[in-house]
Amino acid sequence: MTVLGTALRPAATKVMLLGSGELGKEVAIECQRLGIETIAVDRYPDAPAMQVAHRATSSICCMARACAP
Questions:
Q1: Are strands 37-41 and 55-57 parallel, antiparallel or unpaired?
Q2: Which InterPro entries does the entry link to (predicted)?
Q3: Among 22, 21, 12, 19, which residue's Cα sits nearest to residue 54?
Q4: C-alpha R_g of the chain
Q5: Angle at CA of residue 37, ends 31 and 23, nearest 5°
């Protein structure tokens, strides 16, 4: 069985949602229910998933930095 960890801890499993519309909001809620830390990214600052995610950003340049090796 895979252990997911606890959100907001160094060993937590993290999910970054690239696109944070209504469907992303539902995904974020379910991830949180499972103890997964959620990060919402969208070009709109008030996208729906950003309202429920642990962390959120609306900057496209932040996406590039977060995904870079």
A1: parallel
A2: PreATP-grasp_dom_sf, PurT/PurK_preATP-grasp
A3: 12
A4: 12
A5: 40
Indicate whether 63 pLDDT > 70: no
Q: Could you tell me the sign of the dihedral formed by the alpha carbons of 69, 64, 11, 19, in that order?
A: negative
- 12 pLDDT exceeds 80? yes
CATH number of the domain at 14-67, please?
A: 3.40.50.20
Q: Which two tokens stand for residue 20?
A: 């944070």
Cα–Cα distance for residue pair 18/58, rounded to 1 Å = 10
- Counting Cα atoms < 13 Å in the Cβ hemisphere of 61 gives 0
Mean pLDDT of all residues in the chain? 85
pTM of structure? 0.76
Q: Can you give the pLDDT at residue 67?
A: 60
